[in-house]
Amino acid sequence: MKKLEAIRHLISCWERRDVDALLDCLTEDVEYYWHVGSPPVRGKDTMRKFLQNYSGTYEQLRWEIFNHAERDNLLLVEGHEELLDRKHDRKIQQPFMQAFEFEGNKIGRWRDYYEPENLKPPAAEEAQA
To answer: CA 100, CA 76: separation in Å to the nearest integer?
Structure first.
């Protein structure tokens, strides 16, 4: 399976909320860097817990890839996601970059880059104004 096809499959698994199928796209010792400066999520068991917590807070309404670049075992993607912030009942528009490092057909490292300001709760935004 080509790398971009593998990521589109991963997105499809998440859209169906099939966490087991998503985890099957990852190596056992996967490292997921979800936020620059925070420690990564390591391993499938921890990733499962992370996804459960994430889906309790956000509902991913759309996850689209617009551009990509590939070299050796690395795939970079640029895109846009739309999230529903369940706690504050608001939609968030989020551009992103993601880097996926493959080990064979599985993702061994996954890094997200996005604008964290977009995820701040409305009260925090108003306090800064």
So the answer is: 6
